[in-house]
Structure formats: structure tokens, C-alpha cells
Design a protein that fits this description.
This protein is of the alpha+beta class and 70 residues long. It has 2 helices and 4 strands.
């Protein structure tokens, strides 16, 4: 299974801490590595990045960028 690196706005740091994710602060962003979940074509949220955040309970509006990591 691949992982994804999510770059969050620093204003979301307290929530990241509440979730218990390991994080790094790099270039004024909060970076979190999470598992990449399978895309569900029948899900009500169609955008893959937004769907991933929805499934993980993360606020997509706080995301700057999402990228695949190995």
C-alpha cells in the first residue's frame, strides 16, 4: 500500500495533534503521511483527494497539497 503526504495549513496543527498523527513542520506547512485508501467510485465525494480526507476525517479546506510517496 502506498502512502500520501498531505501538506496542511499551520492553522490545522492543533487538530493534527488531536488526531495523534506524526507530523513535521516544513516551509510553514504541517506535513503528515497517511495511508492512501482505495478510491470508491460510488462515494458521494468524487474528487480523489477530497474523498481521502473525508474518509480519514480530515478537513480538506485545510490542505495545501497532497502527493503520493513510496
Amino acid at each position: 500500500m502506498n502512502n500520501v503526504l498531505i501538506h496542511f495549513k499551520t492553522s490545522y496543527l492543533d487538530q493534527i495533534k488531536k488526531f495523534g498523527y506524526d507530523y513535521k513542520i516544513v516551509d510553514n506547512e504541517v506535513d503528515v503521511i497517511v495511508p492512501n485508501l482505495d478510491y470508491d467510485y460510488n462515494h458521494s465525494v468524487m474528487d480523489p483527494d477530497e474523498q481521502l480526507c473525508y474518509k480519514l476525517g480530515l478537513d480538506y479546506d485545510q490542505v495545501n497539497c497532497i502527493e503520493l510517496v513510496s
